[in-house]
Amino acid sequence: MESREENTRAQETQQEGKKEFQEITLKFGKGCVGDTFMGKDGKEYTQILIPNSDPEDHRPWQTFVARANAVHEDKFGKGMWMKLPAEGHTTVRRPERVGVGEDGKGIFENHDTKVPNQELKEMVEFYKKTSIRDKIQEKKSEIAEASAGKPSPVRSNARVAEAAI
Question: What's the distance, CA 1 to chain centroid?
Fold first, then answer.
């Protein structure tokens, strides 16, 4: 009987010493999945694109690389998802134009940034911050401002009156 109690106490102390492994799930569209390529280690990798959150930002999109077997299609076939450790970091790369070559083409260099995975999730899923209702309200206000200067058209029931005769 005592040995069972000792075993359970030993298991409890081991579990307290262990850190619970937490994961975060990144969800993104199929259009954000880039090329699949073979790494130097012989394993397949997939490039994931991160769209610019600002519509006025016309720079190339940022990218990061994940194992090809870690990127999955959702059950509806519309999007993709992957899991990353919550406490980890991922290297995000953005090509930046440095100058123009002799042939007139741009010269680009890659700018690498190490980003915490929690922040990476926010970058990939930025579209969830703005709701459709907010966008609809913005459009309604734009239309109201544009139509404020124009007189509203008078609608007549002339056709209805002609049909009644």
Answer: 55
Nearest Cα to Cα of residue 80 among 114, 107, 48, 117? 48
Give the whole-angstrom CA distance, residue 97 versus residue 92.
17
How many Cβ atoms from other residues are within 10 Å of residue 82's Cβ? 20
The DSSP bridge pattern shows strands 44-50 and 79-85 to be: unpaired
Do 63 and 48 contact (CB within 8 A), yes or no? Answer: yes
- The number of beta carbons lying within 10 Å of the beta carbon of residue 92 is 19
Q: Which two tokens stand for residue 136?
A: 């609809």
Distance CA 68, CA 51 (A): 20
What is the mean pLDDT of the segment spanning 136-140? 80
pTM summary value: 0.64
User: Is 70 exceeded by the pLDDT of residue 138?
Assistant: yes
Q: Give the DSSP per-residue string, 86-144.
A: TT-EEEEEEEEEEEE-TTS-EEEEEEEEEEEHHHHHHHHTGGGTS-HHHHHHHHHHHHH
